[in-house]
Amino acid sequence: MNQIGFVLLSVLAVGSALSVILQRNPVMSALSLVVTIFSLALAFLSLGSSFVAVVQVIVYAGAVMVLFVFVIMLLDLGRREPFKLTGVGRKILGIAAVAAFLFQISASLSAVGVMGARPPEPLPPGYGTALAIGRSVFTDYVYPFEAASVLLLAAMVGALILAKRRI
Amino acid sequence: MVTLGHYLGLSAVLFAIGVTGVLVRRNALVVFMSIELMLNAANLAFVAFARHRADVGGLVFVFFVLAVAAAEVAVGLAIIIAIYRNRGTVNVDEINLMRW
Fold first, then answer.
1. Of A51, A83, A108, A141, which has the fewest Cβ atoms less than 10 A away?
2. Which CATH number belongs to the domain containing residue A67 in this structure?
3. What is the per-residue pLDDT across B54-86, written as a single tens digit (0 to 9) for each?
4. Tell me, what CATH number does B34's domain have?
5. Burial A16-26 (b: 16+ CB within 10 A, else e)
6. Are A75 and B81 a contacting pair, CB within 8 Å?
7. Where are the alpha helices (DSSP H) in chain B?
């Protein structure tokens, strides 16, 4: 991917991510998150992993975001959150903490020398296809796969119990 | 030429935006969306490293992150609905029953 494409992609991703946390209406936040997810799917495509990009769009932009919008509508949270001046000190503290965090990450990235890393390895044929990923999941990562299936079952049962009338 | 470092930088910025959302916002649903943002940033780092090393294992981990995110959203949104039924609010400042 050339540099101009990457810059456009980054601007789209970062701008929509900022929109997620700056919008006062949760519905607008959810729609901005969909844009972020699509731009990340484009980034995955540019990294040669088309199957992950497709799954990202189907699972995140499809299932997860529909669930979010459904809950926003169910709880009638479409109203704007009032802008209060009471929590400004904590907001500044939060932003300062994030700035320190970002500084830490950039310092460790440059200390490891990732920015000037050697060029990427040549891709083997079939990299990133459903065949390669599926073969890896069901051979090398079969135990994590089973653990994930148990986790999903537990989440399903938990969500059902939590959604009961009286808890 | 776009290198690994560019993608890691983008991932770090997205993660930091997610952390900001969790720390600054009061609406529990927006806090949740910020957590999704952080998971997505981690996924981008995984895919970038997988491409750099030409190793499919990184892509497999993205699927595990997706599974964990799906489970988290299902349970978390159910908890938010239960809290809204009992307390009538999703403002994390007013949900302080377990605060010390």
1. A83
2. 1.20.120.1200
3. 888 899 999 999 999 999 999 999 998 888 888
4. 1.10.287.3510
5. bbbbbbbbebb
6. yes
7. 4-24, 28-53, 57-87
Q: Which of B35, B51, B72 to mutate to test the interface with A (most CBs of A within 10 A)?
A: B51
CA distance B64 to A18: 26
pLDDT digits (tens, 9 = 90+) for A62-95: 889 999 998 888 887 656 566 565 667 778 888 8
Residue A48 backbone phi and psi in degrees, to 5: 80, 15
Q: Do A2 and A75 fall into the same domain?
A: yes
Token output for B70: 């799906």
Residues A18 and A47 in one domain: yes
Query: Is A151 within 8 Å of B67 when comparing Cβ atoms?
Result: yes
pLDDT at B100: 63
Residue B87 touches partner A, C-beta closer than 8 Å: no
| Angle ∠(B33,B18,B73) on CA atoms, nearest 5 | 30
A121 inside domain: no
| Residue A119 clears pLDDT 80, i.e. is over it | no
Residue type at position B72: E
User: What's residue B87's pLDDT?
Assistant: 81
Do A63 and A14 lie in one domain? The reply is yes
Direct distance between the N- and C-terminal alpha carbons of chain B, in angstroms, rounded to an integer: 52
For residue A91, the enclosing domain spans 84-114
Q: Report d(CA A31, CA A43) in Å as an integer.
A: 19
Q: Which of A44, A124, A162 sits opposite B79 (nearest CB)?
A: A162
Within chain A, strands assigned E span none
